[in-house]
Every structure is written in C-alpha cells, then in structure tokens.
Design brief:
The structure holds 2 protein chains of 2 kinds.
Chain A: E1 4-5, E2 10-14, E3 19-25, E4 32-38, E5 45-51, E6 56-59, E7 62-67, E8 72-77, E9 86-94, E10 97-100, E11 104-109
Parallel strand pairs in A: 2-11
Antiparallel strand pairs in A: 1-3, 3-8, 4-5, 4-9, 6-7, 7-8, 9-10, 9-11
Chain B: E1 4-7, E2 10-13, E3 18-25, E4 31-37, E5 44-50, E6 53-57, E7 64-70, E8 73-79, E9 87-94, E10 105-106, E11 110-114
Parallel strand pairs in B: 2-11
Antiparallel strand pairs in B: 1-3, 3-8, 4-5, 4-9, 5-6, 7-8, 9-10, 9-11
Chain lengths: 110, 115
C-alpha cells in the first residue's frame, strides 16, 4: 500500500526551462509535505515544504503547490540548472512518521 | 546550521559481528530518527526517539537496537545481521516530533555491507 506516489521515475529537462515534478498521496491525515533532493550514497537534502493549510510556497527557484482536494502536490523549478540533476523525493508527514515517494530522477540537459 | 553527522561513512561486517552506528546533531532538536534505504528505493522509517525516549519502532527485528544517550546523540547497535540488511542507514533529526511543520534534516548516511 503506497501512500505517497511519484509516478514518473525519470524526467529530462533542458537547462533554463521549467522542471515540474509531481506527487500524489492517499492518506488524508498527512498535514505536512516536503521535497528532498538526493545524490547517490548521500542523505536527502531538504528543499522546500508546505503545510496542509496552504496551497503554495515559494523559495527562490523552487515553488511547491498543494491541491488538497486532488491529494496532489508538485514541485516547480525555474529556471532549471545542471546542478539540479538528482533524485527528488516527495515526502508526507503524519503522527511523527515521514512517508516517502519512490523518487523521480531529474536530468537537466545543457 | 542544519548539520547531522554520522559515523562511520562505510562499514563492512560479518554476520557474527557486533557494531554500532553513531549519529549526532547540535541543533537542539528533540526528535531523532533512523531510516533504512535500499538501492533504488525510498528511505523507510525504523525508529523514532522523542525527548530521548523511543516513541516509534516500525516492527524492526531485534538484531537492530537503538539507543539515545542524550538529546544530541543517537546510536544504532547491530548484532547478528543478515546480508539482506546491507543498505544505507540514515539518521535524521527534527525540532519537535510530530509537531506542525516539523522538518526532518538528514545526515549523509552509513553504507553498511553485511558479508
């Protein structure tokens, strides 16, 4: 039973364009959502988060959107840079537990 | 500063060995976590400590034994592990376990290989 799903295992985007990563969840009890960036053999690095009472949060090039009725969130990166190439995990939090999606590998092409 | 440190970076152990993983944070966080991550999979929660007390054990086998000596330190004692326990073990900390907008910050992980 996968409570957090990232349906796109990989995404390739041209440098300078917008990258959009998507995430769906099933548990209505989740009240906080986060995006992490991960390089191989390293720990996840926190990028940006959003509380369930908001629908948008922005931090520099990163914006997260939350659609509670659809149980869907997305991460927008604009403009995309080569250093953004990594695996991105969506995570959802409830009752002290953080549940991760399967990850999306983002590749930024020059 | 959002640094969580973990030692060792790599560990190779036999199935009869006893070893320990260590995690440290100096952010004043009161919750600490252990996760296990297998290749090409997301991190999976193992244990949660809140105010130095074990609050969540995700049905982890007893060959994994966590310990929280103080609010800055978290250990994971390993004994009689199996080859399938080989994985990246991640430690994380957060300001207040389960509180609203409680962000977990992760360490770099320990790459464990069980022979």
């Amino acid at each position: 039973d996968q409570q957090v799903k990232q349906n796109s295992p990989s995404l390739s985007v041209q440098e300078g364009r917008i990258s959009i990563l998507n995430c769906d969840y099933t548990n209505s009890m989740f009240d906080y959502f986060l995006w992490y960036k991960k390089y191989p053999a390293e720990g996840p690095t926190f990028l940006i988060s959003i509380s369930s009472i908001k629908d948008k949060n922005e931090d520099g090039r990163f914006t997260v959107f939350l659609n509670k009725s659809a149980k869907h969130l997305s991460l927008h990166i604009v403009p995309s840079q080569p250093g953004d190439s990594a695996v991105y995990f969506c995570a959802a939090s409830a009752a002290q537990k953080l549940v991760f999606g399967q990850g999306t590998r983002l590749t930024i092409n020059p | 500063d959002t640094e969580v440190t973990q030692t060792p970076k790599h560990l190779v152990m036999g199935m009869t060995n006893k070893k320990s993983l260590k995690c440290e944070q100096h952010m004043g966080h009161r919750a600490m976590y252990w996760y296990k991550q297998k290749a090409k999979k997301p991190p999976e929660l193992m244990f949660v400590y809140s105010y130095e007390k074990l609050s969540i054990n995700e049905s982890v086998p007893s060959r994994f034994s966590p310990e929280c000596p103080n609010s800055s330190l978290l250990n994971l004692h390993l004994h009689a592990l199996q080859p399938e326990d080989s994985a990246l073990y991640l430690c994380a900390s957060s300001q207040l376990a389960g509180g609203p907008s409680d962000t977990q910050y992760f360490g770099p992980g320990t790459r464990l290989t069980v022979l």
